[in-house]
């Protein structure tokens, strides 16, 4: 019985890791649609979002079944609770990729991004992809040092986000208010995507240590 129970916990972790791969792919494609004004790729991201939502539902159903039938305690209980929260964060990451794709579709056939900011979004897309794949590895390995390393990559995203604002707020910005609003919102989508990836990693730290990073009582 216990062997079957732990196999179910492992399956839950595998499903969460699979969601990381799904949202990484979604943001990679959404970024390509954004940079290239590619309507077909944008439509693919938009239609595939339902798969991310379904994956979250599957993870939550598994987690609640384990709570109801196994009454887990200690580390096992933390694992199940963390999975529920992580699935929510991953579903939101999928939504953020969806927002990027919808922006590309809304402006098509015109590009959303003025040329001066394209390099920022290419780099933000790279960092977002890296964070999602790092979160996937953390779920598999439960490596605390690797989990904490995600915050360094998140700092990289925050720096890009801040620099992006200096471009938008320049008094000589020639692309108009609507374009500035688009760029501001899109930058926020990438920044929030990164934040949710860090949140997933923090849940793994919670599983292993029993403490949430940043709670004030984390073991260092």
TrEMBL record:
Homodimer. Its main location: cytoplasm. It comes from the Bacteria. Plays a role in the regulation of phosphate uptake. NCBIfam families: phoU_full. GO terms for cellular component: cytoplasm. This is Phosphate-specific transport system accessory protein PhoU. One of its GO terms (biological process) is phosphate ion transport. The keyword Coiled coil does not apply. Residues 18-103, 122-204 form the PhoU domain. InterPro entries: PhoU, PhoU-like_sf, PhoU_dom. Keywords: Cytoplasm, Phosphate transport, Transport. The keyword Cytoplasm applies. PANTHER family: PHOSPHATE-SPECIFIC TRANSPORT SYSTEM ACCESSORY PROTEIN PHOU (PTHR42930). It is found in: Cytoplasm. Belongs to the PhoU family.
């Amino acid at each position: 019985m216990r062997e079957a129970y732990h196999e179910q916990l492992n399956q839950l972790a595998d499903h969460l890791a699979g969601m990381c791969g799904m949202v990484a792919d979604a943001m990679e494609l959404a970024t390509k649609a954004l940079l290239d004004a590619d309507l077909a790729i944008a439509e693919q991201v938009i239609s595939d979002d339902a798969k991310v939502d379904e994956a979250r539902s599957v993870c939550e159903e598994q987690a609640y079944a384990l709570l109801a039938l196994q009454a887990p305690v200690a580390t096992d209980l933390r694992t199940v609770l963390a999975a529920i929260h992580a699935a929510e964060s991953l579903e939101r990451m999928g939504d953020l990729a969806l927002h990027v794709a919808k922006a590309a579709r809304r402006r098509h056939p015109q590009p959303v991004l003025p040329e001066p900011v394209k390099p920022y979004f290419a780099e933000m897309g790279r960092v977002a992809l890296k964070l999602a794949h790092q979160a996937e590895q953390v779920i598999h390995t439960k490596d605390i040092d690797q989990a904490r390393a995600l915050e360094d990559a998140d700092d990289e995203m925050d720096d890009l986000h801040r620099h992006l604002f200096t471009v938008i707020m320049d008094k000589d910005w020639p692309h108009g208010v609507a374009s500035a609003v688009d760029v501001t919102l899109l930058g926020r989508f990438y920044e929030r995507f990164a934040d949710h990836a860090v949140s997933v990693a923090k849940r793994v730290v919670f599983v292993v240590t029993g403490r949430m990073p940043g709670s004030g009582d984390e073991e260092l």
